[in-house]
């Protein structure tokens, strides 16, 4: 009985969260938005949300710098001030997360295809900055 009551209370709470009024409208102006859920969509008629299948357009960035090591992951790309910025994690050895050999890499691109790694000169890693 307790579980049923908790489930019912949770269901009512969730239903209340899904009902929006005019004060809940999100103003996006002319900003581009990627519609991957129903958060910004009031209703859909004769349409559906569909993510397109990625297509392989070839290699655009090779992780081969000394500070990156053989293990690269956790790539995060953002678009900022008209350029794409890529932040990523490199590891020079197969060690635990947070080990001293972990590095953070940075690359940037104007078009998302041609990338450069600017010398930010923050730290020296394996005789590079």
Structure in words:
This protein has 129 residues and is of the alpha+beta class. It contains 1 helix and 4 strands. The protein has one helix spanning 2-18, and strands spanning 71-80, 83-91, 102-109, 115-116. Strands 1-2-3-4 form a 4-stranded antiparallel β-sheet, with no helix packed on it. A hairpin with a 5-residue loop joins strand 3 (102-109) and strand 4 (115-116).
What characteristics describe this protein?
129 residues; alpha+beta; 1 helix; disordered N terminus
- Please give the oligomerization state of what you see: single chain
Low-pLDDT sequence parts:
1-10
Number of helices: 1
Strand arrangement, major sheet: 1-2-3-4
Topology of this structure?
Elements: H1 2-18, E1 71-80, E2 83-91, E3 102-109, E4 115-116
Antiparallel strand pairs: 1-2, 2-3, 3-4
Short structural summary:
This protein has 129 residues and is of the alpha+beta class. The protein is 13% helix and 22% strand. The protein has one helix spanning 2-18, and strands at 71-80, 83-91, 102-109, 115-116.
């Amino acid at each position: 009985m307790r579980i049923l009551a908790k489930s019912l209370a949770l269901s009512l709470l969730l239903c209340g969260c899904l009902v929006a009024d005019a004060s809940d409208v999100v103003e996006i102006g002319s900003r581009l938005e990627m519609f991957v859920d129903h958060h910004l969509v009031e209703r859909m008629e004769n349409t559906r949300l569909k993510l397109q299948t990625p297509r392989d357009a070839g290699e655009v960035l090779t992780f081969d710098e000394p500070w990156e090591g053989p293990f690269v992951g956790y790539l995060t790309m953002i678009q900022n001030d008209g350029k794409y910025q890529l932040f990523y994690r490199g590891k020079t050895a197969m060690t635990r997360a947070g080990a001293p050999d972990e590095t953070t890499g940075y690359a940037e691109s104007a078009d998302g295809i041609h990338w450069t790694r600017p010398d930010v000169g923050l730290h020296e890693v394996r005789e590079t900055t």
